[in-house]
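Hi all, long-time lurker, first post. I run a small reading group and we've been trying to get comfortable going from sequence to structure in the token notation. Rather than ask abstract questions, I figured I'd post a concrete chain and ask someone more experienced to write out its structure so we can walk through it together at our next meeting. Sequence below, copied exactly:
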Amino acid sequence: MEPQKTTLAAGISHRHMPLSFKIGTSVITWHVNFNGCWSALNVLTSKKVGSTFSVTDEKGKTQMYKITKKVVVKKGSYEKS
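-- Answer (accepted) --
Happy to help. Here is the structure in token form:
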């Protein structure tokens, strides 16, 4: 999946469950470094599997999440699938 072309936004996989679902897996992607700019979301890369974090939506609703798996994709050109 292709993250947004900015370090200020993350991409959410449509093949997985939305963040608002009570159960299931959500997949979030973002550019760690896009055009020389570091992402504010990089704070999540230092957290270990099992760590929790919260997300507050535009309506002010906060929800907690737990990191269950982390994957680093090396920079490169990948075929769309």
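A couple of things your group might point at:
The chain has a mean pLDDT of 79.
The two ends are 8 Å apart (CA to CA).
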